[in-house]
Fold this protein.
Amino acid sequence: MQNALPERPRRADEPLPEAREVAFHIWKITVPIPFPLRTVNMYALVGEDGWVLIDAGMGTPDARAALQAGLERANLRIENLRAIVLTHHHPDHVGMSGELQEKSGAKVYMHSIDEAAIQILWAHAMPQRFGRVSKFFLQHGLPQTQLWLSHVEPRAVDDIIRVPPHAAITVVEDGEELELLGERYRVIWTPGHSDGQICLFRPRDGVFLAADHVLPRITPNIGLYSPHDRPNPLEDYLASLIKVADLPATIVLPGHGEPLADLKGRTSEITYHHQEREAELLTMIQQQPQHAYQLAEQLFQGRLKSDEARRMGVAEVIAHLEHMRYNGLLKQERTQDDIILYAIA
Ligand SMILES: [Zn+2]
Ligand SMILES: [Zn+2]
């Protein structure tokens, strides 16, 4: 798999593109992505009569090579792919789903909210939506930014991110039981990281497919990106952590990074991180009312180097500010230029 490796220097603790059996008949196939997280995990659940794929990476040339090598390693063939479960709408999780579905005829499952979100990609309506998002960020003090997609040739984007059409997708809802290769999985809707994210839990042996809800080492990005999304994603997220914390999980299989064992412990660490961050923001606002971008710059101190990072950082700060506003700690004020400032309530 050497030739699948990207040429950038690698951090010591960074996961490699690889394929490995992490639990009995469950393969973790890790492929590169052109984002700071660098890799994303896809999982292959293998049964007697075929296999099921959880998430679908992005279709960059090195990711395709890594997936190909992974499938060979695990001895899996596209023709035997029976179903694809897409945990949420982010491009690094859905990119190759369109072509894999086409080649295999597999059923595709997704939560209704994020299914609606990927149809925007299918309809090539991303630039319009992004225009609205930019206006939203402008009001929070962030100067115009470029979308990662706009640096890439439009035709190349179709290769990298291609999703199945609406008619090929079966939508699922919270609490539903999915039968995959004769095994039962509970669908757990975990809004927060995305409005329509789902995790899967297998009661028989406690396998928990965590998507980007619970990650090792890093806390998942929880951001408010648009006035059309669910308005209080951090509240959603913290509630979704409580929702999964007490599951009798034996192994947690995350969307990025290595599997972990202690689901409850990790959910507590992440909750604590968010409490600390809110305390930090509150201290900054006590000095003077400020907009989200100012606060993000202080909080992330020079780490917001790309447009992508700036948007994510600001979206994360807005999620915290709105969470505190809903809890009665903060209020909004407007400048003459219609910039939103947050002040102590
Ligand atoms: Zn994600
Ligand atoms: Zn992800």
In short: The domain at 2-276 is CATH 3.60.15.10 (Metallo-beta-lactamase; Chain A). Residues 88, 90, 193, 212 surround zinc ion (ligand 1) (CB under 6 Å). The radius of gyration is 20 Å.
